[in-house]
């Protein structure tokens, strides 16, 4: 660097004061001249060159460019997942919430009404509504909704929509109509049939006894370029086993193994059922062992079918080994090796065998990574324990449920109600202890306990324990529960029977303030009680001063208390509770 600077100064002055000896050519070749005065200038030049290498976007759009006209005869495509955003996604989530709550009619109504609003539902929302109604086996409603959504309202169906319709036709025994839908997909739809289309059609054909048509459909599926599906083969194999044609079943099984090296192990469960049907126990277990030798990583749905098959035919040891293997392979999120149905299958088997302690151990058994316990798993084992008289163990699991911040539903309390208030064993004291345990569990434990609390009040009143019943009633209000008309009626009738007319009057006034109107039977019972005590005018004055336009009365329908308005305005919601027997109370 200094050498070249010295040369530059000499050339600028016009004379050279230093005699410079010539350097070798190699030195000149390896020397590098810096073209920038600073590192900042070099970096700026590098950035400039990078900008030049980029493809610059157009600075303006040619608005006069002619766009190709859309073909009016071109098939319209269904909604993509990109359309499920914003308000349409919010609508979809609201409808899904109604579906999960089991309110299918409200979900269907909201989806249909949304079609006449600015926020129209997507095809995914329509499919969710139809599939939920299909699971409820309301086939006529599925057909009507499909016609309404996709024919009348011009929503473009996707392949899932057609599969729901095909499945509904097959389950309703209308296989020919399902085949017509399939042919229409092939002719007019802008998408091909999916593998689920062939699964539903094959099952419908086999169930209707048309095994030859099912085989033809299998060949058509393969000829159309679909991959070999183990569940389609499984349906056909099960059809041949049902016809006692084990040779054809084995032939199709061998064909599946040739065309698909890795397949669903549920096919082995079907073959095992066929062998056991013929009394061939050794061949059935050899078939099961051949599946284990393949070392497939099987999903829980497949393993659950194998578990049920083994337990059904007395192979409890093999089922336990498979269950332990599923626990070891359960390593979420890499692989889900077990689900709630797996536990329910093993627990149900333990209860059938009378092994109650072992059932509780299975419920708590885990592998390397545990499967989180949800309310459905607790409900299943609590129902089994209560049905077998093991209420104490059920209460322990209920405490564990509350400790994990899970909210019991009405069905959970109905199991305890059946156990505590059965006809042959009325355990009202244990029910009261359980009630106080619920109160200590917080508001979440009492959200769905209305019917159970009413049974406690009814049992205490019938037993003559009015003071304890009033304490329970007070605890209900302290815990945030809103008493219903049935609660008031039972307590008022019990107080009148006991002769505590002042307490009955105070409770009757409170009932009127809460907007409830006593039924005719209770009104006549109260009037008779007060008239016998010479205080008939008091209750008449209270009844006359009540406001019927805002009050509701309890209407008994099949053990449910449905608040009804006396003025014709609608009362939302239901207050569940069994009907109080006023004659028994009196």
From TrEMBL:
> Where in the sequence does UniProt note compositional bias of the Basic and acidic residues kind?
53-70
- Please name one Pfam family that this protein belongs to: PPR_1
Keyword list (alphabetical) reads: Repeat
Q: Where is this region: Disordered?
A: 47-81
Superkingdom classification of source: Eukaryota
Q: May I ask which residue range the UniProt record assigns to the signal sequence?
A: none
Query: Known InterPro entries for this protein?
Result: PPR_domain-containing, PPR_rpt, TPR-like_helical_dom_sf
Q: In residue terms, where are the PPR repeats?
A: 158-192, 194-228, 299-333, 339-373, 374-408, 449-483, 484-518
Q: What is this protein called?
A: Pentatricopeptide repeat-containing protein
The root-end lineage is: Eukaryota, Viridiplantae, Streptophyta, Embryophyta, Tracheophyta
- The gene from which this protein is expressed is GRP23
């Amino acid at each position: 660097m200094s050498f070249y600077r010295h040369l530059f100064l000499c050339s600028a002055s016009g004379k050279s004061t230093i005699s410079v000896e010539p350097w070798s050519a190699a030195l000149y070749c390896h020397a590098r001249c810096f073209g920038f005065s600073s590192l900042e200038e070099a970096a700026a030049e590098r950035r400039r060159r990078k900008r030049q290498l980029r493809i610059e976007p157009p600075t303006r759009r040619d608005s006069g460019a002619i766009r190709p006209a859309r073909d009016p005869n071109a098939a319209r495509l269904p909604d993509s997942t990109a359309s499920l955003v914003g308000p349409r996604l919010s609508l979809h989530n609201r409808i899904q919430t109604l579906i999960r709550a089991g309110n299918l009619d409200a979900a269907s109504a909201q989806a249909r009404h949304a079609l006449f609003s600015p926020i129209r539902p997507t095809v995914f929302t329509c499919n969710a509504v139809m599939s939920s109604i299909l699971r409820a086996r309301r086939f006529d409603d599925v057909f009507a909704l499909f016609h309404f959504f996709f024919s009348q309202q011009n929503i473009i169906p996707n392949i899932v929509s057609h599969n729901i319709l095909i499945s509904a036709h097959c389950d309703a025994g209308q296989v020919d109509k399902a085949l017509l839908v399939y042919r229409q997909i092939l002719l007019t739809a802008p998408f091909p049939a999916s593998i689920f289309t062939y699964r539903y059609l094959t099952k419908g054909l086999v169930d209707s006894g048309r095994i030859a048509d099912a085989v033809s459909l299998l060949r058509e599926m393969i000829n159309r370029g679909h991959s070999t599906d183990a569940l389609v083969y499984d349906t056909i194999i099960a059809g041949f086993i049902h016809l006692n044609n084990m040779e054809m079943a084995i032939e199709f099984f061998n064909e599946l193994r040739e065309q698909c090296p890795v397949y669903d192990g549920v096919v082995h469960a079907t073959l095992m059922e066929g062998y056991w049907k013929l009394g061939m126990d050794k061949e059935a277990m050899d078939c099961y062992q051949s599946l284990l030798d393949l070392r497939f990583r099987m999903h829980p749905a497949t393993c659950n079918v194998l578990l049920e098959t083994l337990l059904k035919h007395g192979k409890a040891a093999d089922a336990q080994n498979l269950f332990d293997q599923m626990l070891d392979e359960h390593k979420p999120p890499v692989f889900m090796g077990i689900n709630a149905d797996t536990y329910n299958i093993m627990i149900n088997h333990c209860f059938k065998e009378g092994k109650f302690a072992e059932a509780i151990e299975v419920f708590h058994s885990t592998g390397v990574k545990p499967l989180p316990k949800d309310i459905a798993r607790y409900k299943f084992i609590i129902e089994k324990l209560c049905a077998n008289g093991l209420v104490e163990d059920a209460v322990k699991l209920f405490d564990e449920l509350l400790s994990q911040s899970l909210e019991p539903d009405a069905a959970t309390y109905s199991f305890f109600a059946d156990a505590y208030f059965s006809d042959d064993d009325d355990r009202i004291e244990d029910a009261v202890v359980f009630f106080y345990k619920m109160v200590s569990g917080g508001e979440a434990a009492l959200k769905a306990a209305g019917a159970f609390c009413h049974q406690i009040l009814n049992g205490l009143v019938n037993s003559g324990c009015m003071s304890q019943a009033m304490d329970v009633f007070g605890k209900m209000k302290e815990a945030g529960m809103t008493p219903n008309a049935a609660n008031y009626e039972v307590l008022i009738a019990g107080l009148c029977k006991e002769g505590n007319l002042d307490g009955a009057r105070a409770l009757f006034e409170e009932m009127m303030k809460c907007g409830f109107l006593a039924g005719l039977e209770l009104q006549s019972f109260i009037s008779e009680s007060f008239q016998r005590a010479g205080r008939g005018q008091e209750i008449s004055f209270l009844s006359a001063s009540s406001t019927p336009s805002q009050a509701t009365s309890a209407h008994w329908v099949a053990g449910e208390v449905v608040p009804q308005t006396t003025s014709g305005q609608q009362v939302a919601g239901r207050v569940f509770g069994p009907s109080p027997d006023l004659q028994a109370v009196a």
